[in-house]
Amino acid sequence: MERSESKNRLSAVQSQKLLFDLKTRFETHKQRHLNLSWAKLETKLNANPGKLWSLYQMDQTGGEPDVVSYDENTGEFVFMDCSPESPKGRVAVCYDKEGLESRKEHKPKTSAIEMANRMGIDLLTEKQYRDLQKLGEFDLRTSSWVLTPAGIRNLGGALFGDRRFGQVFIYHNGAQSYYSSRAFRGSLRV
Predict the structure, then answer these.
(1) Radius of gyration of the chain from its Cα atoms, rounded to whole angstroms
(2) Which structural domain, as residue segments, surrounds residue 129?
(3) Cystine design at 147: which of 22, 29, 123, 159 (Cβ 3.0–4.6 Å)?
């Protein structure tokens, strides 16, 4: 992986390659963002190098970020990880730092919440996860942590989702658990 020239900034080469990849994905999957303009999106991306850096992190960890909606109220494009399976560069992580610290042995390197924060993105909420599943079939063999309500988290649990048997399921697990087939999907507003 090519290093960025400074913290949270991409080099010109990295930016150009990422914009090319995002445009290709945008044009290939038009059903995800009907009636949206690449030119308008590209202008926004070029004006927000920190957001471009976060998209690069999403892409480098296997998320295949793509635009899934446009918020008329805020004027923001909403990106989500659209990789068919949960991003490979984010697997085998606990839900959050508290879950990680509660493990007695075989601790993973990090947690989904910590990794998302470092990347500058948010975990998908349950609603966002279900909305994403309306745009395609995701997590047919993997699963993805989703943002867990405080009431569930305070009791030690965390939520994750997947698609099996043609249906989207949201389940629970201990926040300290981790699996080689579970990662997390993120979102970013630009």
Answers:
(1) 17
(2) 88-189
(3) 123
